[in-house]
Amino acid sequence: xxxxxxxxxxxxxxxxxxxxxxxxxxxxxxxxxxxxxxxxxxxxxxxxxxxxxxxxxxxxxxxxxxxxxxxxxxxxxxxxxxxxxxxxxxxxxxxxxxxxxxxxxxxxxxxxxxxxxxxxxxxxxxxxxxxxxxxxxxxxxxxxxxxxxxxxxxxxxxxxxxxxxxxxxxxxxxxxxxxxxxxxxxxxxxxxxxxxxxxxxxxxxxxxxxxxxxxxxxxxxxxxxxxxxxxxxxxxxxxxxxxxxxxxxxxxxxxxxxxxxxxxxxxxxxxxxxxxxxxxxxxxxxxxxxxxxxxxxxxxxxxxxxxxxxxxxxxxxxxxxxxxxxxxxxxxxxxxxxxxxxxxxxxxxxxxxxxxxxxxxxxxxxxxxxxxxxxxxxxxxxxxxxxxxxxxxxxxxxxxxxxxxxxxxxxxxxxxxxxxxxxxxxxxxxxxxxxxxxxxxxxxxxxxxxxxxxxxxxxxxxxxxxxxxxxxxxxxxxxxxxxxxxxxxxxxxxxxxxxxxxxxxxxxxxxxxxxxxxxxxxxxxxxxxxxxxxxxxxxxxxxxxxxxxxxxxxxxxxxxxxxxxxxxxxxxxxxxxxxxxxxxxxxxxxxxxxxxxxxxxxxxxxxxxxxxxxxxxxxxxxxxxxxxxxxxxxxxxxxxxxxxxxxxxxxxxxxxxxxxxxxxxxxxxxxxxxxxxxxxxxxxxxxxxxxxxxxxxxxxxxxxxxxxxxxxxxxxxxxxxxxxxxxxxxxxxxxxxxxxxxxxxxxxxxxxxxxxxxxxxx
Length: 762
Ligand SMILES: Nc1nc2c(c(=O)[nH]1)N[C@H]1C(S)=C(S)[C@@H](COP(=O)(O)OP(=O)(O)OC[C@H]3O[C@@H](n4cnc5c(=O)[nH]c(N)nc54)[C@H](O)[C@@H]3O)O[C@H]1N2
Ligand SMILES: Nc1nc2c(c(=O)[nH]1)N[C@H]1C(S)=C(S)[C@@H](COP(=O)(O)OP(=O)(O)OC[C@H]3O[C@@H](n4cnc5c(=O)[nH]c(N)nc54)[C@H](O)[C@@H]3O)O[C@H]1N2
Ligand code: SF4
Ligand SMILES: [Mo]
Description:
- By secondary structure, the chain is an alpha/beta fold.
- The chain is built from 25 helices and 28 strands.
- The radius of gyration is 26 Å and the shape is globular.
- The N and C termini lie far apart (61 Å).
- The chain binds ligand MGD (2 copies), iron/sulfur cluster and molybdenum atom (MO).
- Molybdenum atom is lined by residues 141, 145.
- One ligand MGD is lined by residues 116-117, 119, 141, 144-145, 301, 389-393, 396, 416-419, 421, 433, 435-436, 470, 639-640, 648-650, 711, 731-732, 735, 749.
């Protein structure tokens, strides 16, 4: 059980997790009143086992800072904000959403958010509210990075995969710098272990010599934006030199003729020249791959937010497919998932395209760059209202100015956040949420194989006065809108008092008799099962249903992982109890390697590589540009890289950073020389969309012609006198809506043509 915490007055260590990246490392926090005075890794956490990076130690800047919101806010006619009480705020939100729904249909209400790094439980309730209203379109930050990848994986495997890097003989990172961005357990330890083992190899595709690249056996320091050419050339070599696992391919990749034919036509030398990498290095990589017993590969923003991104997502997977690295330790694996199963709204035809511009909707998400285009129009089907939860799209999506305009063009908007963000400053109503440490929350980034882990964080401090946890906020809005009747729930409330077996029966009967209520079931569970859960855990009520779903989909593996069906009303109920009881996380499924096929929706033990759209793109690649620079914009800007003290926009107080406090512009020595720049100088970065002033750091890690700014900077934060100050460049003042992948619509944030201008003295 949790040590005594400040919730009952004592200054002891409390167990929780870091919320700054998807790893959600287990931590222990020493509290004095509400202050996080010391933080250390939780050695008992089933996955992170005490590991943290430097960022977790600075979490007090998230929990306790001058920027926390403590009252609902309403926009005035002058564009300022006034405090209002909760009842008024809920009535305004219910009224605003109701008006738009009644006038234009629920399809004109757009939902954005729900995927912070580790706060996902609340979004089950947010989704329930949206589904109850009848919202049809939604999106979140996944649709500005991973939708191309998702589309490729769904077509190739029918499942999402992650590499089991702790066991991979060869680890590949394509446009990913895990030394800084982590994304898998104990990232730095894992990287060092691979680098120090002569039997293993690290292959890194990155134009910058990052910390990860410095550890690599093969650092492919390619020209920015040319990964498709580079990986196509390696695949061409694998096929040309017969370095593929024919036995695996004959068993599991029978339909491959079109792909192999296309790969035979790759002009290897030409592509090597285009990406500015010696052919000999690409041949050495192909040789190393062909000898590997297992390959794990991880792509990320360096290619997902650059030219040909969907094609690269496809091609990089072929590096391990051709090697037969699948269904064995160290490979990329599908996995079970304890998380939300998407929207519960009834199936509606036509939702695979956006209503105004017809952009491709992948995995139910509208491409982020399309959102302003779906609003700033007089098209009758435009989005006219928005619910924005736990996200700051004005800051984090392409072209901040356009997003601000779009929000002001809406008939109604509500933002639910802990701070008065750049997005909140455009909303009609802002609702203050209790922080990630003031309520129970959980990450749904449960992407592990063979053992998959879930961790429920319990509140370790009381909610800041004036704030509410999201389940309560959503329930109040739903009730005010009349989406369900509290009186009708009374029999369920009574049943819950008699234990979960009685409740489970009553609940099944209730949903059976009221099928439309299924859409709202998380909120119904919160109001009925919630009050019977241990103090502070009422917000975990919806997890009961999710645990039952996982148990139904993976009964053998849930039981194998230690949940005993005899211990509760069902196997899922037993898993739910384990989750509630644990402070160190639970392994919720345990798979065997030969069970990977059961986790896929292709059923026939086949990987589908014959993807006509991608093969067409591969065949057309030689007609694509390799250089997007021009006389006007002679540099390529990577707008938003991960550094030691960046954490998306979760921490707003600039004082949380121990180094790189200005978020320097990284530039190569030759480029610095040509502009006469030295470390610490200030310079203006200009793109087709906007311009911003940055401080310069000259570094030999950058290629000539390539410059980089960090993400997460340029946030407004009040200083001690209440004056709002901004430190660093807000990268999306420089990016453009149209600059995006033609297939998935994901932005080219890592590839923005730019120039530098000296700042006039005075
Ligand atoms: N410290 C920290 N960690 C984080 C986050 C954070 O804000 N801060 N955010 C989290 C989130 S939301 C995400 S999505 C991940 C992202 O994690 P990463 O994708 O690893 O992060 P980035 O630094 O944005 O981009 C990775 C690399 O892409 C390289 N790159 C740029 N252009 C190209 C190119 O054309 N080709 C190739 N191959 N590489 C290129 C950059 O030099 C950079 O090293 O990080 C997560 N972890
Ligand atoms: N140019 C450029 N743009 C980028 C990137 C880039 O590399 N370059 N990276 C992109 C990527 S990969 C991502 S994932 C996005 C991330 O962009 P966002 O989704 O906007 O960022 P987050 O940091 O996840 O947003 C977290 C928000 O939740 C709020 N919050 C924190 N705790 C709570 C809570 O308990 N409840 C509620 N309701 N709110 C809370 C925070 O105040 C913050 O406003 O940025 C993207 N934007
Ligand atoms: S930022 Fe990520 S890697 Fe670092 S401690 Fe937090 S969860 Fe772990
Ligand atoms: Mo992200």
